[in-house]
Amino acid sequence: MTTVTARVERRHSATPAILDAPAIVQEVLDALSGRITTLETAATLVHGGVAAFGAVGGALLMLTEDRQAVRVIHSVGRTASSLQARRRFPLTAESPISEVIQSHQDVWLPVGEHLSRRYPDLLPDSHARRWAVLPLLVGNVVLGAVAWSFGERELPYFEAREQVCLRAMAHAGGDALFRSVLFGAERAAGRAAGADHALAARQDFVAATSHELRTPLSHIKGFVSTLRAKDVVWDQPTRDEFLADIEQETDRLAHLVDDLLDMSRMQSGIIDLSARTLTTPTALITAGVNRVRSLITDHPVDVQIPDGVPCVRVEASQIERVVANLLEHAAKYSPPGMPIGIVIQRLRREVVHFRVEDHGLGVPPEHAERIFEPFFREESGSYPAQPGTGLGLAICRGIVRAHGGRIWVEPRPGGGAAFVFTLPVATTGVRLLQAS
Description:
alpha+beta, Beta-Lactamase, Heat Shock Protein 90, 2 domains, 6-stranded antiparallel beta sheet, 5-stranded mixed beta sheet, 13 strands
């Protein structure tokens, strides 16, 4: 499990108004993108609701192969104790789970009396006072349901922020669950190793892409559905807040689509380098820093460029993007206030080395290659999930390789990571720009 699980114990004693719930929800969404087994997916999703909103219990249930019943995949808290006796539940019984799976609609029960009136034969947990049950869908196909139970609360309804966040987690959970089913089916098929690897790589990319696209779409859909609800009238400040969130998620979606298109071109070997010009490393670094200046304000940038470093012939905007991506990555994984170092060197006659250093936790040796794969995320609890498209480093590798260079990560002396890339030295016209 990720740091989501570590938060659960702290949440049991927290007040209902958990201020950092959206941040925890984003952490859960990021964590779900890396889950490949059903149990991992279920545990991450269920614990996420407990950590974000202080639920007293939760469970994820999946439809059986005959789709006549559901089975418990993972449960926690009070819900776990009430489910221990039975792991399989027929859909013929009247219950919120059955209703959600058959209708594909959420069930929100903010008051205990609602449960007893709606499901008179159900014996609820005596410690729970509110319930939220949501379907786990892929398109129009239901895979199961996730349920959370909550303690006493004064408000006789679920707040809009709670509904939006829980819906977003359920949407992402449906995608992750579908991916885990595919993974299990492929692994069970026992295909040849070579074909398995190629298929898994394509499958991982498609699955990760669908998740990354669904995350902002889930937020947008959640906010729009909440604004359109007929049983609640939102005041103008709340509406403005929701619209601002929709705009932010739309911008994120547009950025992701741009990155996906670039990644697709790179994987197809289609990168336009026709605009290559003779450029100084100083100009590339300056432009790269300016691109992300607003994102790295907490980190002073220390640039070291010795005299006599030769020019390179590059498509300048592409290399500026590499510098910007590496700076943004360094800022994400460095404590606030810690500097980011940029060092330019000519260690060999034919290449220029660009080195971007951070003061973070570093990259484990076993992930030194995988970190440049699309959507790869570090899953260790020591590495908190970070926002982003998950394509930044993969795009860097594609651009650098297209220019005839290399890129890698290595430990920084004293702690942290150093991302290094090389570019060939320009062989003509060097003196024209040397002084600048």
